[in-house]
Amino acid sequence: MRINVGGKLWLAFFCTLTLTVLTMYLLLHNSLKRGFLDYTSVQAIQRLDVMQGALLNIYRSEGSFSELVQDPKRWLDVKSIIFSDSHRSVSPPNESQQQVQLTQNYYREFVTSISLFDADKNLLMGIIKPEKTISWIPLVDNNAVVAFIGFVKPEVVERESDRRFMAQQLTFFGIISLVVLFISIGVATILTRRISRPIIALSKHTEALASGDYQQRIKINSHDEIAQLGDNFNKLAQTLEANEQSRANWIADISHEMRTPVAVLKAQIEAMQDGIRPLDKNGLSLLAQKVEGLNTLVDDLFELTLSDIGALSYHKQRLSIDELIQSCVEQFQTQAQESNLSLVTQLPKTLPINLHGDGKRLEQLLTNLIENAIRYTDSGGRIEVELITRFEQVIILVRDSAPSVDISQREKIFERLHRLENSRNRATGGAGLGLAICKNIVAAHQGTICAEDSPLGGICIRVTLPQKAQ
């Protein structure tokens, strides 16, 4: 039998409340019985004051209890002082003859348990009941204990009126316990439904989320752990929805990126097949250019995928970062001149500057950054590549002149397939994968990369790398 969370909570409440009420009833039953016995015992023990005075008078007049010990009848007469009117002093006037007889039996049993002991608690008169706890009343004369009165407290309720009173009280306690139990069960039922309702709702929303409905959200009405769980569910659903949207955009963007060169290739090949375009060197050069574009896109996608899953290989070693920067800048000097751009480096006076890294991947990082700067900088502008060392860190700054990038777009430029201009022309905008690859390369070197304002009027890409291995 499968019990849901609500049923388990209710069962836990029910068992706990039942055990609590039962324990309370048993404790009250025991407390009432013990308390009532103590109360009736006090009534009986109060009669011992008379006997205590009589015994002290005998001791003072005779100097000891020797004669009393030798005369058992006299001892019975002393005890009869207690029994003579005890039943009349404590019995209600409307008691029946049977009830009076029970009361007399009760006090007779008490009186027969009274014994006289000397100062060392040695028995003088009376009997000792085995396995009974004896209570002691000292007989004091001139600040000295001369003897003890020993007695056994009653352990059962003998009188009918007392038993009837106890039965009434226990019945009353039983009724109260049942009322408390029923009220508690009602409250437990309400609390169980209140606690289980959001859990049931969370289960239904989770099931819908697992089936692919990422728009599921839970309404938060409290501030407890269940509410925190609901808030985490909402964040999870929001993240999954964003990832699904990103995946759809990714597929759409990749399809668009590949469709354009494929369409050009198809059109050119069909034109050559139909004889509209001659099969010459220029036509083959255009086809080769589009194939190369597709190959570059596939290579970028492959590298980005490898870096995402951590499978991109890195062979780190000690290398001179200033020499690597100088080499990369020299490779792009011709391209910068063709774009009417000035490309310069700013290196520290203290050379060389070494760090622990993968030379091939860092070259790929610098190549992407410089190529991006050349592609997006207006003609007649300036590009600066600066190297700074600070606190065992290497800082690489790639600055360019106008145009700049809006502040709201600066974090997004490191996202895959994100480009600031809407055109899909790879000659100007590229596929938007370069900076995403750069971000992964920097992260693999335990560094950081960010975009900030450039003093030249454009944008500055700041790369911070540790010099030592981590």
UniProtKB/TrEMBL annotation:
GO molecular function, one term: ATP binding
Lineage: superkingdom: Bacteria
SMART domains in UniProt: HAMP (SM00304), HATPase_c (SM00387), HisKA (SM00388)
Top EC class, one word: transferase
Coiled-coil segments: none
Compartment(s): Cell membrane
Pfam families: HAMP, HATPase_c, HisKA
InterPro entries membership: HAMP_dom, HATPase_C_sf, HATPase_dom, His_kinase_dom, HisK_dim/P_dom, HisK_dim/P_sf, HssS/ArlS-like, Sig_transdc_His_kin-like_C
SUPFAM superfamilies: ATPase domain of HSP90 chaperone/DNA topoisomerase II/histidine kinase, HAMP domain-like, Homodimeric domain of signal transducing histidine kinase
Enzyme Commission numbers on file: 2.7.13.3
Transmembrane segments: 6-28, 170-191
Catalytic activity: ATP + protein L-histidine = ADP + protein N-phospho-L-histidine
Residue span(s) of domain HAMP: 193-245
The UniProt record lists the keyword Translocase: no
Membrane topology: Multi-pass membrane protein
Residues annotated as domain Histidine kinase: 253-469
Principal subcellular localization: membrane
Assigned keywords, A-Z: ATP-binding, Cell membrane, Kinase, Membrane, Nucleotide-binding, Phosphoprotein, Transferase, Transmembrane, Transmembrane helix, Two-component regulatory system
PANTHER family xref list: SENSOR HISTIDINE KINASE CPXA
Protein's name according to its UniProt entry: histidine kinase
Source organism: Paraglaciecola algarum
Taxonomic classification: Bacteria, Pseudomonadati, Pseudomonadota, Gammaproteobacteria, Alteromonadales
